[in-house]
Amino acid sequence: MKFDETWIKEWIDFEIDSESLLEQITRIGIEVNKIFPREKYLENMIVGKIVKISECFENKIPSKVLTVDIGKKLLKIFCNSLNSRLNMKVAVSIQKSYSIKNKKKREQISEACLCRYNQIFFLKENRNIVEIPKNFSIGSKIGKHLIQYYQRTFDSSSVSNRKDFDYIFGIYRDIAAINRKKISFQKNKIKKNRKISHSSHVKLNITEPKYCPYIFSRVIKKVDVGIKTPDWMIERLSWNDVVTTNPINNIKNYVKLETGYSIFAYDFEKIRGSITIRRSKKNESIFLKEKKIDLLQNTLVISDEKSIISIIGITDNERFKIQKNTSNILLICAIFDFNLFSNSLNEYQYVYGLSSKVNESQEKDSNMLLNTIERTSELITKICGGEVGKIIKFIYEDQCLKESRKIVLKLKKIHQTIGHRLSYKKISEILIHLGFKILSDSNYDQLEIKIPSWRKDVSIEEDIIDEIIRIYGYNNFPKESSRNLQINSKVINNQRDLSMMDILYLLKRSLACLGYHEIITYSFINEKLQNLLFFNQNYIELPHPISSKMSVMRTSLIPGILSAVQYNQRRQNDQIKIFESGYTFFLKKNSSADSHQTKVTQKLMLSAAIVDQKERSWFQENRKIDFFDIKGDLESILCSIKSDRKHFLFKKNLYYPIFDKEQSAEIYLDDKFFGIIGVIHKRIKEQLEIRKKIFVFEIIIENLLLNKDLFSIKKYKEISKFPMNQRDISMIFREEIPVSEILSECRRVSSFLLKKKIEVSSKIFDIYQGKSIKNGYRSISINFTIQNSQKTMREHEISNVVEIFINEMKKKFFAILREK
């Protein structure tokens, strides 16, 4: 919908500045797509008066030369507009503006331009020059007189479930709620006690109350249908792509944009007897553009005692429409439940090509129905003149009661949901201003709330809580952010002051996102299990254990992890992905458990495990878990704390016999031991009676804080415009040299070259053992992507870079360049 500040402020009966209005429009849930500033279009326009019109026929092309008085001087202006005439006051653009420039026309200079309606008022189809009222002084600025057009125009869109934001009153209603104001119609001059000038009316009758529970009507006499519709109304209709016709239809459409309710207007002199809302009978028809339309049986219609007036939701009978000679009109405003007969409407589209014009989410409020017909009457009498009659109503109360919706809202749930306690008074005040009705309360513990008819989107407690939060204002809640937000802020802003617990929190959250479940086990474990898993570690014995199975302090989280796997597998649960965090305890070196000066150290650790079985699924093949699944998960969670992977190195496992040495690795953070990863040894599994493979990692959290450079600060770097170059080499290394060390050395050399503005990325694409390779050695092929950020590299420069890598590999690993 498009609307300007003036339009919305016509409804608001309290002071509000433009910036606050824009902020509140966004806050209630309306997205402002674009803003059109009016002052930009009016600042160079002044009032002029046409004092002379001359005809010009150069090159047999007719044209008008207008002499326009702007107060200080006379201007000669070329114009072909048909509505120009002597003594007409016009809008003159005297400088370069948004669409008009001084230009040369037929070798003569037009000293200014006259502004058209489609330039000032956004009237798409009206290309006539603007006629300024006679009381505007010559030479004065247009903006001084058209002050309402200085207001900004908003192009907005609302969420799909808030159809009440598609009209002005729906927007006003929520803005009033934000400002804690009662909804009022006095500012908009809707006078319910209007002076009645005649007694003419029609009797109303409804035979299908479930389809139409409300209907209001009024007769207005002595209406001038031939009068011109005001420009401000045509403009607002044009914004919203409404085709303008006669003033009565324009007013109908305008009021629908304001209130959301449709108005029917008919020629009163052609109505015979009472008006009835009923189902169509057999062989009934109407005329549409001189074409006879046979009605489908049981169609909902408006009729008088002689003929069909309208097919509801489709079209009106041509005979009853407003014509140029119409002077007495009948207004009808009703509410229909289109959901109950939408199939019938679709049949007309299929049979006759007549599209349905219904609003299935229409409000069902008799007060708004009354206000809509009053607002329509006000605009008709103001623009077209006329004398109003009394309003005739028909309301089917029983049907209205059936349609009311109620929700019981517990105050305790509000506090639990938003994490903040609001008073009963504040909650009830917000709901009342939004149009909700509080039917009862139980000692302020819960509220029984009646949902207003226009809030189709409200169906459960959480919907009402969302409304309370929205109107109370997100900014009004205490600024005590959750730990989650605090830590995220540090990570996003590249802060290096993450605490050990912050890091642990992020790692645990990442594991949970990967589908792992957190477990908590005792810090006391069975001594036999400790000796089975870590026989070479000094552990702390408890002098007075509560159980023989809880006699020593754990030195690792892995015993608890394995016990949890064992427990679950015995209960036929093989889909296991678990993790645990906590402290482990060690005797300091040169201490013994018997010493009176025993000193204990503790380390914060994180451990996780997955069992060798993927969940069966229709969208992927069933496969076995392998080492790279657990390794990938570990690398993924380390990325969540923005750690730079170049600091981590995976080396061959030499000291942990609980792991299979062929499928495990020790993890180093720079040169400091950081953790262990791999598959649990078959011997351990058999003794614990665990059937399937278990992949485990365990890391020491506090070691992440030892290197402040670990958490890299991401900075923007422009992508080089110069070409990349690919080079491959194959070198022979000793078999025991880990690939990770080779890649680490490549990264080190790349860092050195980066200082010279040369960017190099490296990756291994082939490993070969066999023919032509000596036993105990293997050939490793490395691909280099080389690029200079400042120039195009020549061949000898590229070769020099590759040579640097080859020399460093020879120096550190005694590698041999493989011959082609």
Automatic annotation (TrEMBL):
Any single GO BP term: phenylalanyl-tRNA aminoacylation
Location(s), subcellular: Cytoplasm
Segments forming domain B5: 402-479
Keywords associated with the record: Aminoacyl-tRNA synthetase, ATP-binding, Cytoplasm, Ligase, Magnesium, Metal-binding, Nucleotide-binding, Protein biosynthesis, RNA-binding, tRNA-binding
Enzyme's top EC category: ligase
Co-factor binding comment: Binds 2 magnesium ions per tetramer.
Annotated TRNA-binding domain residues: 39-143
EC number: 6.1.1.20
Superkingdom of origin: Bacteria
Reactions listed under catalytic activity: tRNA(Phe) + L-phenylalanine + ATP = L-phenylalanyl-tRNA(Phe) + AMP + diphosphate + H(+)
Transmembrane segments: none
GO CC terms: phenylalanine-tRNA ligase complex
InterPro entries: aa-tRNA-synth_II/BPL/LPL, B3/B4_tRNA-bd, DNA-bd_dom_put_sf, Fdx_antiC-bd, Fdx_antiC-bd_sf, NA-bd_OB-fold, Phe-tRNA-ligase_IIc_bsu, Phe-tRNA-ligase_IIc_bsu_bact
Matches recorded under PROSITE patterns: B5 (PS51483), FDX_ACB (PS51447), TRBD (PS50886)
Occurrences of domain FDX-ACB (ranges): 720-818
Molecular function in Gene Ontology: ATP binding; magnesium ion binding; phenylalanine-tRNA ligase activity; tRNA binding
Residue numbers binding Mg(2+): 457, 463, 467
CC cofactor: Mg(2+)
Family from the record: Belongs to the phenylalanyl-tRNA synthetase beta subunit family. Type 1 subfamily.
Known partners and oligomeric status: Tetramer of two alpha and two beta subunits.
Descriptive protein name: Phenylalanine--tRNA ligase beta subunit
Lineage start: Bacteria, Pseudomonadati, Pseudomonadota, Gammaproteobacteria, Enterobacterales
Chain's gene name: pheT
